[in-house]
Amino acid sequence: MPPLLEIKDLMTVFDTVHGRIKAVDGVSLNINSGETMGIVGESGCGKTMLALSIMRLVPASGKIINGEILFSGCDLLKISGDEMRAHRGSEISMIFQEPMTSLNPVIRVGEQIAEAIRLHQNLPTKQAMELSIELLREVGIADPEKRVRDYPHNLSGGMRQRVMIAMAMSCHPKLLLADEPTTALDVTIQAQILDLISGLKQKNNMAVVLITHDLGVIAQAAQKVAVMYAGKIVESSAVEKIFDDPLHPYTKGLLDSIPARCVDSIEKGNYLKTIPGSVPGLYDSISGCRFNDRCPFAMEVCARKEPPLLEIKPGHFVSCWKYSMDKNN
Length: 329
Fold this sequence. Notes:
The structure is a single chain. The chain has helices at residues 47-55, 81-87, 99-102, 109-121, 125-138, 144-147, 157-168, 187-204, 215-221, 239-244, 249-256, 263-267, 300-304, 321-328, and strands spanning 5-16, 19-31, 36-40, 62-71, 74-75, 92-95, 175-179, 207-212, 224-229, 232-238, 310-313, 316-318. By secondary structure, it is α/β, with parallel strands linked by helices. The protein has 2 domains: 5-91 and 172-278, P-loop containing nucleotide triphosphate hydrolases (Rossmann fold, 3-Layer(aba) Sandwich), CATH 3.40.50; 102-170, no CATH class. It has an 8-stranded mixed β-sheet with strand order 6-7-8-3-9-10-12-11, with helices on both faces. Helix 8 links the parallel strand 7 (175-179) and strand 8. 41% of the residues are buried.
């Protein structure tokens, strides 16, 4: 069976006075129905822009210049704006990063959910509001008959995130893009939100793209993971393989900087491990491996030539000259 979502060599760019920024640079991914794919990496690595590209919501200053986004076999980059709007919300939904800025502050939350239902399901206002109440109940909001009349500022951060999930799930999409859905939430609420998304995924056999910088969230909620760095996928595999046997030096650095994994070193008086340096600018002038300046294993070829993304082990892909050379020898 073909994947629900198949991304091939996707490139999204922004033209600035300093040159062209490649926010998403040749990304390829496959996601199956009922599967959660985690996208992890530092801030600015292109995670959110990848999701916005899938939704065709790239800001006006940017554009998609290459690639394919096949959703159930349909290339989303080749259909009209009206056709894409029909997909967006009904078959593909997105939970945006900050619910306080994503929700309209002057419209009651029930009306915001009902608007999406009316648009995609063509239901009358009363029936759409009744469904909004049921959706709030489904996502665990107590007294939903009262809460539909609240404004976003009347709700806590966790409740606003639940409203966003209810809105995203209003038309039972096949694909849900969740951009940092647990940011700024305490650990207890974070676990509740992840459990909620997981339960809705199983109930609807929905695919989920979970975007986060938190590897703990990936370990809890995803089956597969792709590690992004400077606009590119540098490693992808099943979640267990990434945690048990990380291959790319950047992935190893991310895992080594998790406090829970460094506890023995910290107890011995050593500092928490960090990745030296910073993410490079994403301009045309970049050559070679983008992690080259920060990599403790960098070789001469790393500064000259970009490594390909190769399958080093079954289902385990990595973009690193160390493994590319081993595979070719």
